[in-house]
Design a protein that fits this description.
The structure is a single chain. This protein has a domain of about 260 residues: Rossmann fold (3-Layer(aba) Sandwich), CATH 3.40.50. It is about 15% helix and about 30% strand. The relative contact order is 0.09. The N terminus is likely disordered.
Amino acid sequence: MHSPSCRAPWRAVLFTALAPALIAAPALADAQSASRVATTGAAATPLPKGPRAMMLGDWYRVVNVSSPAVSPDGKRVAMTVTKAVEGENRRHSEVWVVNTAGGEPQRWTSPNAESSNPRWSPDGKYLFFSSQRAGGKGNSWAIRLDQPSGEAVQVETYPSGSMPADGSFAVFTDAATPAPQVPAGDPFAQQQPMARPPFDAITRPAMPTRFDGRHVVDMTYKNNGTGFVPGRRTARAWRPQQLFRQAVGDTAKKQLTTVAYSHRSPGVSPDGRWIAFIADVRLRADSMVDMERDSLAKLPYDKVRDEAERNDADIYVIDANGGTPRKVAEWMGAESDLTWSPDGKQLAFIGRPARTKSARIYTVDVAGGQPRNLLGDWQFEPSAIDWLKTGLQFSADIGGRSAVLKADLTGKNAPKELVGGRRQIRGTSYDASGKVMAFVATSMTKPTELFVANGDGTGERKLTGFNDTVNADVVWSDAERFTYKSVGNLEIEAWLMKPYNYEAGKTYPMVIYIHGGPHSAYGEGWFDEFQNLAAQGMFVLFTNPRGSSGYGADFTYSTRGRWGMEDYEDLMKAVDIVAARPDVDSTRMGATGGSYGGFMTTWIATKTDRFKAIETDRTITDWTYWYGASDAQGLTEFEFYGKPWDNQALYDTLSPIRYVRKVKTPMLIVQSEEDHRTPMGSAEIWFMSLKKQGVPVELVRYPRSNHDLSRSGEPWLLVDRLGRLRQWFGYWLLGQKVGAAAN
């Protein structure tokens, strides 16, 4: 998703033009070819040449391209390139650069450090990137381009933040006062943060040096991915975020505001005279709204607030040298992605009138007035906006695909699609003039690569081929897209991926995949899990049932209080359609899914015996247990209309464990030991219940892993999981011997 900041640090409008670009990388930068990164970290066993089906070892060969950044003069694109290093069980990220005119991409950062998130300075003198390196302060590093350069350096005199067109200064937010210090003589000074008694706790350790447990008084004490964390009051006092200004070439930071509320998403006008920002409309002195806005775990359920239009924040402008802020407009809703027009006379933002309403793009005169809706009742929702000299362009998911579009500034006409097709597009970036556009794209049979086009979407061409080698060896399976009418005549989008080496006249087993969320979506992109099973000779069915994102808020939130009801029917309708095909063996069908999909697979097991095998991943089997054990209680408070004691009947009715005695289908359960989103207890009770009933069941518990194992977990464990999916469905659907599909 696009950051809610007004602009990414080095993407201010009307950048100063760079001097002619260097054709080669800076001195001492390794000009390795793109092919080298594709062969780094050799596989444990050499893989055969293709064309052939995907093997597990091929996963390590797939390169991920992300975070493209076009240089101000439009002559180069920097990007993050990430590759798994199989022998070391890790991923490695580097910053690579390619000329927009074409040629071989070059690596610009050290292979001995992790580097990512490239961004150009407006004057073209630096390529900044993020990296944690020994001896550094913070994680911002730079390569200098206007003179011979060697290793990356840190430039304290070049601030990070929103800049005017001339790049002379930056504006950013920070807390105005230092964090509270531990008092001298603290008897708990030697304890770990969570072992220390919180300041308002009643109990204390008998001997501080002998207690190494965790003492909890705050509700939020663990998070998926970071594990157990000290509570807010234990870690530091909350301090409002103020506006600061720092001139380029100077380390001094000038505080522009000193008020009792937080500022966010600051953006400097192109002429450098004004700063626009978003602030809590009620200006509450001790408000935590700005910090907690995006965390489901910390927002209390309020039906009136969620159902009705609300006014969480408003847009303000302030003189770039400080002064009294002026409210631009009071708009009922939540604003983000604040962006200046090139002439500095208007502001654009993405606004959501209420939690269950679709986001729109609005523009408003800086002088004041009523914001104008540019998208009207267009079905889909914007995810990022860029106001160029040629107009306002934005990206959006359109069902399972995505596109770059141009908005009609009058709001009278539907947006015009500039770049689209059956694929997913991410990370759109433009040069200073808006004439060059770069983006990363992936399709069903092609992993991510970098593309460039003219600012209006014409003249598209591919600039990288990091995955050419693996693409030449592996025959990736394609998928047929179809739509169908489900309950209430609602149209549902779905895909059926053919098995590797498909032959007409034969029949094949089928596995349906169910995505997480539920407010997420499958789409027109390369996905390792689908290819993994298709390579074994199975159809893979995947759908976006009601509750999925990408189809407008009405579609997304139509499942509130009704998980496992109409959405279940949507899934089964797709299975009915596919099972009726002459090339699908309806007696050999399986189901799999994770998170919400994990809940749904266990739910399916209680409602039907039509599947011969099921794999459930990151499952939820008892919602009351989940409410107490997870890090996201706000999800069910919103989706199930209250806390368990407010609506216990619904929590129980939607808990698969209440119907576990009906389960007959063999099930594989995969769960991560450090998953705080869908904790282990759901898997344990499900496993024990099935085992007691004599249902074939296996539980695989992955160490050092959290809710994101299947996406960003340790490579060895991630690939092991893919292998177990092959084996489970290979055994039950293909009649393979134990372990036969693990390659």
